[in-house]
Amino acid sequence: MTILQARGVVRSYGQTPALRGVSLDVHEGEILAVTGPSGCGKSTLLHCLAGIMRPQEGEIHYRGQRIDTGSESVRSKLRRTEFGVLFQFGQLVMELTAAENVALPLLLAGTGRREARTAALTWLDRVGVADVADNRPGQMSGGQQQRCALARALVTEPRVLFADEPTGALDTLTGEQVLGQLVRVTHEQRTTVVLVTHEPRVAGYADRELTMRDGVLDETEAGIAVPSGRHGR
Q1: Which letter does DSSP use for residue 85 in this model?
Q2: Which of 6, 9, 51, 229 is least surrounded, with the fewest CB atoms within 10 Å of its CB?
Q3: Cβ atoms of 48 and 11 closer than 8 Å
Q4: What is the DSSP letter of 138?
Q5: CA distance 84 to 176
Q6: In the chain, alpha helices (H)
Q7: Contact 8, 21 (CB under 8 A)
């Protein structure tokens, strides 16, 4: 079943085109990797799919409803409830502890403080960093910070996780550990994942891979074949 769909998406920065009429379907429960060199438009595509930015042409549909024409408040609500976003550098709030960082999306959505902390501690444990719950980011390694960011992205139990170069700031071993946690917990939750990366080893964790070049997806790969199974676990 298609959960997320793009049709004819165009986006430019000034006179520089980033996306040139991109179309794709994302299937519910799959991990989809979008690969390609730096500057090819893959992060821009992720931002459009996640409602962070609007395409200048084309349409984005989530569960059959068009979302790119929604107001910023509508798209922000989607990112608080239906979508989770994991960035390359985690973007944790430096003044907050790990548990407070993970609880933040729930608190912003109106969840009580005690309930939010309990959920945060549960998710920190699920991604293997319960021991740093009361540490601030400056007291954690890069891998611990990224696992905390993963817990924060998943604490609301989103239907779709958008991961933009999630291991780009980590060494190979630490990146493998974070990817292993990401695949395991999203598989358990049946969370759909859109993963942007320029690294073939990272794409190897996905069910399906699409290649982007100069703002266009490879037409031979942009079909809607049902994923055949998880790799790299």
Answers
A1: E
A2: 229
A3: yes
A4: G
A5: 20
A6: 42-49, 72-81, 98-108, 113-126, 142-154, 172-189, 200-203
A7: yes
